[in-house]
Design brief:
The complex is a heterotrimer of chains A (about 270), B (about 675) and C (about 425).
Chain A: E1 11-16, E2 19-21, E3 28-30, H1 32-42, E4 47-55, H2 59-69, E5 75-80, E6 85-86, H3 88-98, E7 102-106, H4 118-126, E8 130-141, E9 144-150, E10 156-162, E11 165-169, H5 181-186, E12 188-193, E13 197-198, H6 200-204, E14 206-209, H7 225-236, E15 242-244, H8 249-263
Helix pairs in contact in A: 3-4
Chain B: H1 2-28, H2 38-57, H3 61-86, H4 97-121, H5 135-153, H6 164-187, H7 192-202, H8 245-252, H9 259-263, H10 265-268, H11 275-287, E1 289-290, E2 308-309, H12 326-330, H13 337-341, H14 348-363, H15 370-380, H16 403-406, E3 408-414, H17 422-437, E4 442-444, H18 454-458, H19 462-477, E5 480-486, H20 489-498, E6 508-510, H21 511-520, E7 525-526, E8 534-536, H22 550-558, H23 582-585, H24 593-604, E9 608-611, H25 614-621, E10 629-632, H26 633-640, E11 641-642, H27 650-656
Parallel strand pairs in B: 3-4, 3-5, 5-6, 8-9, 9-10
Antiparallel strand pairs in B: 1-2, 7-11
Helix pairs in contact in B: 1-6, 2-7, 3-4, 3-5, 4-5, 5-6, 6-7, 7-8, 17-26, 21-22
Chain C: H1 9-16, H2 23-30, E1 41-43, E2 49-51, E3 58-59, E4 65-66, H3 72-87, E5 91-92, E6 100-103, H4 114-128, E7 136-142, H5 150-153, E8 157-161, H6 171-185, E9 189-193, H7 199-210, E10 215-223, E11 231-237, E12 242-247, E13 251-254, E14 266-267, E15 270-272, E16 285-291, E17 305-309, H8 316-326, E18 329-332, H9 334-338, E19 359-363, H10 369-374, E20 380-385, H11 391-395, E21 398-401, H12 404-425
The chains are: A alpha/beta (about 270), B mainly alpha (about 675), C alpha/beta (about 425).
Amino acid sequence: MRPESHHDAPLAVTVLVSVGRHPLTGRGRRADQDARGVELSHTLTGAAVELLHAGRLDEGSEAALRGYLGMGFESLSLLEQPAGADVLPALAEALEASGPQLVIAGERAEQGEGSGLLPYLLAERLGWPLVSGLAAVEEVKEGVATLLQALPRGQRRRLQVRLPAIVTVDAAAPAPRQSAFGPARRGDVDVQAVPARDDADLAQWQAQSARKRPKRLKIVKAASARDRFKAAAAKAQGGGGQVLTEVTPEEGAEAIFKLLKEEGVLR
Amino acid sequence: MLDTLLPILIAAALALAVIGAGRRVRLWRQGRPARVSLLKGLAAMPRRYLVDLHHVVARDKAMSNTHVATAGGFVAAAVLMILVHGLGLGAEVAEGALGWLLLAASATMFVGSCFVARRRRHPPSRLSRGPWMRLPKSLMAFSLSVFAITLPTVGLLPEDFGSWMLALALLAVLVWGLGEMFFGMTWGGPMKHAFAGALHLAFHRRAERFSTRTGGSGRSTGLKALDLEDPKAPLGVEKPADFTWNQLLGFDACVQCGRCEAACPAFAAGQPLNPKKLIQDMVVGMAGGSDAAYAGSPYPGKPVGEHQGHAQGPIVAREGKALVDAETLWSCTTCRACVEECPMMIEHVDAIVDMRRFLTLEHGNTPNKGPEVLDNLIATDNPGGFDPGARMHWAADLELPLMADLQQVDVLLWMGDGAYDMRNQRTLRALVKVLRAAGVDFAVLGNEERDSGDVARRLGDEATFQSLAQRNIATLAKYRFLQIVTCDPHSFHVLGNEYGELGGHYRVHHHSTFIAELHEEGRLAFRPWKGGRVTYHDPCYLGRYNGEFEAPRNVLRALGIEVAEMERSGFRSRCCGGGGGAPITDIPGKQRIPDMRMGDVRETGAELVAVGCPQCTAMLEGVVDSAAEVRDIAELVADALVEPPAGHAKGPARTARPLAEEVVS
Amino acid sequence: MSDIRRRDPRKEWIARNRLHPQHLEVLAALGRGTGEEAASEWMGPHGLIRRNPRAVGFIGPNGVKRIDRSGAQQGQRAGGARASAAASKPRVEIAAPAFLVAVVPDMAGGRLTGHDRDLLGLARQLADADPAARGAVLAVVFGEHKEDDFEGAGVDRLLHLTGPEIDGFAPEARLGALVAMDRAWGPRHWLLPDSKLGGADLGRRLAARLGERPATGVWQLEADGEAPLGWRCTARGAAGTLDFQRPMPRLVLALAECAEPVSETRHAAEPLALPEALPIQLSRIQDLGQVAVDPAGVALSEAEFILSAGNGVRDWDAFHHAAEMLGATEGASRVAVDDGFMARDRQVGATGTWVTARVYVAVGISGAIQHLQGIQTCDKVVAINMDPGCDMIKRADLAVIGDSAKVLEALVALVEKSREEKRNAA
């Protein structure tokens, strides 16, 4: 960060961070997408970056939040909110008060509803434009940011957006740097008490750990019982691989081509 | 003329030496404080020098004799010279016997220095040149001139022999000799090693590694823990001054003999590490300056002269160059071959891990897959990021007894993270078969087990290591067992040598040791070996770290295998490249360490290489087109199992062992 | 050809009379097959299936006529009939719908994606639940498209919006259109795909603008009389680790395979137009167009289709060329990386990257255990290898034993040919 090299005020950036959850063990950690958002903020030269979290500070969340500090930050602002609270008003008010130019958020939280709505609701409430699925910020100049948006299969799209704006990042953004223990331990978590609003809807819904979704079978709409039987039998014997020995390269390639076609990976 | 000049000269040299010593001590004292018993250390120093250091030096017989002659001659000559020429005690005391002794000492030293000179005529590449090339001449100058000035003292030559011209020439040579030997000793010449080395031996940071008259262990390999409780305590080493003062002293003791360089697997593989250069860089950093004056082999691929630093400056820069590049530190496999070879008992691995700690804990700059592995260890307690609940999946059909069910057993089988690795699962299965065949009362922790913390610690993440270790210790404290057996030497080392500092004291055995014991007790019987030639690869963490060279060979012998030893085996075994997180940090070199090791195997003509470590298995098996098969000792034993002969019933052997009554917590 | 079956009593009579001179010709004409062979099966006058055993079978090796009763011969003929069946699906018209179910398909590449079809299937479930008051499925399509089967996908009404302001990435303009639509027709349900292709983004924008709390990641729906809209849904939350059971809201973002696509019926897909012109908005987001990306540079863990090289690859230029032609991301075995042919970040396996590709083509990789561990989650594995005994062959769904360079060359030729054909057809 070299603020002196910019004669105008440094770009004010706020990164919204949440407490993640490891998919296998359920332990608290840096949320992957949020950490990528923090990493993205590191790529903005001359930006004044602030980390903002709304939630509780307890044993489970502190290690995770300090994980963000370990990416090279001295402090993190925490808006104190009880579990199951709707953090939208608290965050919106904090952002209105601090007035950053750019807000970076992960696409979805790893805990709770995880609907990915929060950035959209914030954008709606603040009246700011929102760009989702960012891969990189290429340039910020005169109140306009040039962004690279990630599309499926590694494709990219270049966009320009007028600031202030909210951007969200997903797994296509640069991988987060390692969180170092020393800065994480030293960093300051600045807890601010703010009024909380209950999320009444969420409390009414039943949550259970995700069931494995049934794999869709290829349904054969066959006229005769024989065709249906054949289809079912073909599925059952599909376990072993097919080995083509002593074929010409052309025949082999033909078989592979057919499989690639069937899987739809050839464009 | 000589009579008046000599005492002045000697006094001046001694005075300069003392001033230099003061300056040198000031350099060392830039380091952090360390708790060392000064008097005890000084008292133990002669024994450490004569026994332990010489044990290492004596591996090279010719050099050892050369050093005895030169160093012994020098010490005697120097003391006698001060007495005879400095204080003028030559003629009066013991009828000039001192003079004769001085003649003998300087003559011995001269003979030694001739051998040194011969060595320096075509020095091997591991030796540093530069000022070291003039050392034999300086030694000769000193010994010859002392010899010459003593001749009149004992009356072999008349007092006024020769002209004043000759006397002046002689004096000039003597000044050169004195300069190198006294002045250079404390002002940074090659002879510095004698001064710093002696003190280094006295104030060594691992006093336990030296033998004692009562028979000490003579081995101290566990890393020392960082204090994480104190938020002000530094996390590793950022700048040379962050080393403890006795570590700095240790670096200064280096003689640049390059034995470490010759033993280092990373250097041989062309990775940018040379232990000798690293130590010299630390000396440069301590005194301030650039490495341009270094006259040995550089780090492969890194020219000399581009790096510089000072005692309060960073060793590794976040960007650009400082004293050392980070990849140099990450090239180390922590195999301890350098430490084992070092005649000055310098602790290279400690220093490297200290610097790695700073890079990981403060910079957050573990290279390549390092951050991912550490995150996995934090989140899932294993480096692969597997479900901790799946740790026992490999043994779903084995119905392994769990500690949680039994509470008390003879043997706790520590599975290690190899439980997730398909290759190592074969070894584990074999080991379970062997334990069952011998009727051993054992159990596993199952899903309660965690990574031992070895990889985290070698990667410098002391926080994760201590967290894992403390939780493992808490788990182990719930149960009663006599000993821990593991097929992973890394877990073996960490559990046995590094958990103690955190409050976990256990009797730990490597599976090869345990199998050897079982065989000796007659609880295992093997059918004779029918396969081809077999060689054995010593895992670093079993051999050099824990001194277990014999048990695996005994097991192989019991199997009827005659081991065709590799040239580098036993304490000189070459690393497989899998230690210290090296496969994770993956610093590129010119060739791969396991390829070189399989080359060693090929030279023996062996069809099979026996190993005793999951890392070694993975690394050596990963070598393409190798002629030799890689099998763990447990697998070889399991394959050769037959019913034990009658008379060796399993019952008595078990009841002969006391039940857990002296369990350590 | 008409699908309506017409009966000709005279011909049926001739067919029954084996002595009639025209018997065989009529038999052939009545059968499903073409005139060359005699029909072996036809429907008799009473609806019974009649068989002519003389018309089927073949001459066996001993000169004896054989009839294969396994049906293999019949199976060969079934194709033609099926094709015509598609056209004969019953057509459903909903003239006066009780309500509207609005669906905004992604239309990736100008066509309905599988996800879109699933979503339309879900929309049909909602629309057709009450036979007494059926709703209509209204699809909103932005920009030019190439889809020609909205009818078969279950669309009753189609709103096709075009114009420069909604082309490319124009979420604000599209949102304005959806809001205008909501105001004009007030659909009872809004369904969008919860997909990276645009639905997830647009759906959330719509939810925020309409002030509706949507259900996201919905994958299951069931009727529930107590819920306000009569349905309950199961929604994935917390990064796929939780399922929420909740009453279905007005706006639903559904996952792929949330329902079966429509397959039995055809619908009107009647074009609609918005009653008023779209409001003109000042866009704060400007689309500067897509950026060219090298498929070889796509992160391995994200790649969908990987062509991976091992020790058996000799001609590296040909391998890179093949990867480029197939549009595959390049991977490598540890050995290929160690030998310096591929970069370290391309290494697949337990010690490299764990890949999740749908199709993994291993070229000259023998399949070390660590490598096989790294491709555990791959759906389809294809191996090209010289050694038929190696572990990769055992793992592979399809293995070709042979010279990998030649097979790749032939494969590239095939791909080029098919591209050429496609280009000519288009």
